[in-house]
Design brief:
alpha/beta; eight-stranded parallel beta barrel; 9 helices; 8 strands; binds 6-hydroxyuridine-5'-phosphate
Amino acid sequence: MDLRGLMGNIRVILALDEEEPGAYWRILGELNGLARAVKLSWLSILTLGPEGVRELLSKFRDIYFIMDAKLADVGFMNERIARKLEEWGFRGVIIHGFVKPINMPRTGMDKYILVSMTQETHYDNLLDTVLAEVSGVERSGLVVPGNRLGVLSRVRSLFPRDIIISPGIGVQGGSAGCATKYGADFVIVGRAIYGSREPRGEFLRINEEALSMRCGV
Ligand code: BMP
């Protein structure tokens, strides 16, 4: 089942970039039943350690964990890193789209390709080149900034069927309603949820906003 099938009426992927191990357990406990997909990062691995990550993933078995590895190494390294992540229980991995050809690991994990970032980067000068490369690669979805609506709508128009997941919501200025209106299937949200006093309430509020696809009203 792909991410659309797994998520039901949830449009929020939680990004957990905490610097204290207990916070991962606390937030996932509070968001029990709501957080169906969670993106971890290298920061999460540095904080929890390999054993901690494995423990977390095996405790929250129902959650679809994506490792935001931003893989951009040579082929054999991407391959070896992906193999470890899959062994640990990750179900999705994020790969940079600027490498030519993109070194897609052979893995059973879902593969999401980052094609542009929430801040300006040289991706912006190369967007068409990157997208042409991406179109020839087997993928599960794309990571596209949710706070840069011009980029988001351009990618959506060129990739009408791809799953698009979009960071940049909340602290980085994007709105969940605008992101889904302009083409995101799911918004990736971190600090606005885990940094809030009421993570559950905030999760639900942002999810409602994403579902509403309301932008600028
Ligand atoms: P926050 O919602 O707290 O701003 O977190 C955004 C998350 O999305 C972080 O995990 C960050 O690494 C990730 N991200 C991003 O912010 N911009 C990008 O272009 C790509 C990302 O993966």
